[in-house]
């Protein structure tokens, strides 16, 4: 579950980046940019806004590397993008705007990155439907629960990392995650008919 | 079984699925799970939810966010220029203007002061000198003429005599032997009177008339040479007094152009009767007017030009900002 203990020497890269080595920072960036972007997307539900928030977060992270005092670099990085997203959400509350994504998911098909390579058209369609259902269901969760379930189940962070990121206790992370999962189970049960057969919950006949 | 099931909450099941249950609870949970079918079903459902949430891969970012040195430099540079450099630049830009304003003010004050002082000198000296001919005419009737007037008039009359005796067309700058001779004669008889003009303030009556005559001759020659230089910048008292005297004497001479030389000489001889000691005392006491009787406008002129220049520069700098 914890993907930070990879073979690559993250601590050395962070050290070099802190000394101003942009290449080292870019290596870290390439490793985490998908997670950073996805957290931004889950918080903003807007590709363009998530894109801007991600770029802004990396620039802020590079300039604020001196403030990183150890611990999980990924948690530190994700906290920066989360703060950037919260800033954007506050700005939206002051000046509401209409997102292009409110008009439909047409851009999902136009985006080549969303196409899962090697899948049959039927499978691709199934994946897209499942993704849409999942993201729609996640969006219904309270923000604190959504944040935790995305971090743990979507990105694979350890509980301790999440506690570090959210600056909260480990028990709080556990309880939020449990409530989020229970809520997701209930919501997905309601959408059971829309789920692919193999993903249908409570299918005791299959179990 | 039911009791076992009720003791395990969602948070424990969720943590157990992730392997995050505390070690103390882990074995107890596994023991209960082995016997409790309801708990087994709860764990199964929780795993299905987690599997479903993890089933869909993450969205691919639309691009790479690799940072370039220019991106980082531009950002930080813009922030610095906006937050920190502005006050320094403003201070740096305002310093020359403040300095120029101060310098212009000082130059203007200096100009006004020097011009005022020069004007005051100018307004005093000509009055004294212009009164000299009148005083000279009245002098014979006066037993004790004002000291300053006497001192000035003595020199003026001396030059006047020379001027009158010279041909009108002859330039005063040309040394005239006759004038020198006349000056010698005058000084021989009035050595004490001549001495203050030559060495004012410190001069004392010369008992030796011969020495005084020699000095007076020199002074008379200098006097003749400096006569046409009306605006000469002379700081030393004696030549200044002489130049002024010649200047005024020329004017008087022009006024008396029609008069016979004898008349001027008779007037001059009348002044010869003045008490030498009295004239000397007057010169010693009121030597200042004879020294500063030539107000020079060069200093106020320069200061005025500098003031105008600085004002122009200040205006230019302020407009450039």
Provide a compact summary of the structure.
The complex is a heterodimer of chains A (207) and B (321). Chain A is mainly α and 207 residues long.
Write the layout of secondary structure elements.
The complex is a heterodimer of chains A (207) and B (321).
Chain A: H1 10-18, H2 22-44, H3 47-63, H4 73-94, H5 106-110, H6 121-140, H7 143-154, H8 159-166, H9 170-190
Chain B: H1 2-7, H2 10-18, H3 23-35, H4 37-55, H5 69-138, H6 147-165, H7 177-189, H8 191-198, H9 209-226, H10 237-255, H11 261-272, H12 276-285, H13 287-291, H14 298-320
Helix pairs in contact in B: 2-4, 5-6, 5-14, 6-7, 6-8, 6-10, 6-11, 6-12, 7-8, 7-9, 8-9, 8-12, 9-10
Word description of this protein:
The complex is a heterodimer of chains A (207) and B (321). By secondary structure, chain A is an all-alpha fold. Chain A contains nine helices and no strands. The longest helix of chain A has 23 residues, at 22-44. Chain A is globular and about 55 Å long. Mean pLDDT of chain A is 84; it is low at 1-5 and 103-115. With 321 residues, chain B is an all-alpha fold. Chain B contains 14 helices and no strands. In chain B, α5 (69-138) packs antiparallel against α14 (298-320). The longest helix of chain B has 70 residues, at 69-138. Chain B is rod-shaped, with a radius of gyration of 52 Å. The model of chain B is unreliable at 1-5, 75-90, 132-155 and 157-292 (pLDDT under 50). The chains are: A mainly alpha (207), B mainly alpha (321). Chains A and B meet through α2, α3, α6, α7 and α9 of A and α2, α4 and α5 of B.
The arrangement of helices and strands of chain B along the chain is HHHHHHHHHHHHHH
Summing up helix and strand content along with how strands pair, one would put the structural category of chain B as: mainly alpha
**Chain-averaged pLDDT of chain A:** 84
Report the total helices of chain A. 9
Count of alpha and pi helical runs of chain B: 14
Cα Rg of chain B = 52 Å
Number of strands of chain B: 0
Which stretches of chain B are poorly predicted, pLDDT < 50 over at least 5 residues? 1-5, 75-90, 132-155, 157-292
Shape of chain B: rod-shaped
Number of strands of chain A: 0
Order of helices and strands of chain A: HHHHHHHHH
Largest sheet geometry of chain B: none
Radius of gyration of chain A from the CA trace? 18 Å
Distance between the termini of chain B: 87 Å
Overall mean pLDDT of chain B stands at 61
Q: Give the fraction of residues assigned to helices of chain B.
A: over 70%
Percent of residues in helices of chain A: 55-70%
The biggest beta sheet of chain A, please?
Answer: none
* Biggest interface and residues each: A-B, 52 and 38 residues
């Amino acid at each position: 579950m914890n993907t930070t203990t990879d073979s690559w020497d993250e601590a050395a890269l962070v050290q070099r980046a802190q000394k101003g080595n942009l290449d080292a920072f870019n290596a870290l960036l390439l490793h985490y940019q998908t997670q950073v972007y996805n957290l931004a997307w889950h918080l903003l539900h807007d590709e363009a806004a998530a894109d801007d928030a991600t770029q802004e977060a990396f620039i802020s992270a590079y300039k604020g590397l001196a403030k990183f005092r150890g611990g999980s670099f990924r948690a530190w990085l994700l906290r920066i993008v989360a703060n950037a997203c919260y800033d954007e959400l506050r700005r939206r509350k002051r000046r509401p705007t209409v997102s292009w994504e409110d008009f439909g998911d047409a851009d999902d098909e136009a985006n080549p990155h969303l196409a899962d390579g090697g899948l049959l058209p039927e499978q691709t369609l199934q994946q897209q439907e499942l993704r849409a259902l999942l993201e729609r269901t996640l969006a219904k969760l309270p923000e604190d629960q959504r944040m935790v379930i995305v971090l743990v189940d979507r990105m694979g962070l350890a509980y301790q990392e999440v506690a570090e990121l959210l600056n909260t206790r480990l028990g709080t992370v556990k309880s939020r995650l449990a409530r989020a999962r229970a809520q997701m189970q209930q919501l997905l049960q309601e959408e059971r008919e829309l789920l692919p057969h193999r993903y249908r919950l409570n299918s005791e006949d299959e179990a | 079984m039911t009791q076992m099931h009720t003791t395990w909450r969602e948070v424990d099941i969720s943590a157990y699925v992730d392997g995050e249950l505390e070690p103390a609870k882990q074995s107890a949970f596994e023991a209960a799970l082995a016997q409790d079918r309801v708990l087994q079903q709860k764990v199964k459902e929780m795993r299905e939810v987690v599997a479903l949430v993890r089933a869909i891969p993450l969205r691919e970012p639309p691009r790479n966010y690799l940072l370039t040195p220019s991106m980082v430099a531009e950002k930080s540079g813009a922030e610095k220029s906006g937050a920190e450099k502005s006050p320094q630049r403003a201070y740096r830009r305002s310093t020359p203007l403040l300095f120029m304003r101060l310098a212009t003010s000082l130059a203007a004050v200096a100009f006004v002061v020097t011009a005022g002082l020069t004007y005051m000198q100018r307004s005093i000296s000509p009055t004294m000198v212009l009164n000299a001919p009148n005083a000279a005419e009245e002098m014979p009737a006066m037993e004790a003429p004002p000291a300053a007037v006497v001192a000035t008039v003595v020199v003026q009359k001396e030059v006047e005599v020379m001027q009158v005796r010279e041909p009108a067309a002859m330039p005063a700058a040309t040394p005239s032997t006759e004038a020198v001779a006349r000056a010698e004669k005058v000084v021989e008889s009035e050595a004490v009177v001549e001495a203050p003009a030559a060495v004012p303030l410190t001069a004392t009556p010369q008992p030796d008339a011969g020495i005084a005559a020699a000095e007076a001759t020199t002074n008379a020659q200098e006097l003749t040479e400096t006569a046409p230089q009306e605006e000469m910048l002379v700081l030393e008292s004696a030549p200044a007094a002489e130049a002024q005297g010649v200047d005024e004497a020329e004017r008087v001479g022009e006024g008396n152009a029609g008069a016979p030389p004898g008349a001027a000489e008779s007037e001059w001889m009348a002044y010869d009767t003045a008490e030498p000691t009295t004239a000397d005392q007057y010169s010693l006491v009121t030597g200042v007017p004879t020294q500063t009787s030539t107000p020079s406008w060069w200093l106020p002129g320069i200061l005025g030009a500098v003031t105008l220049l600085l004002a122009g520069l200040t205006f230019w700098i302020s407009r450039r900002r």
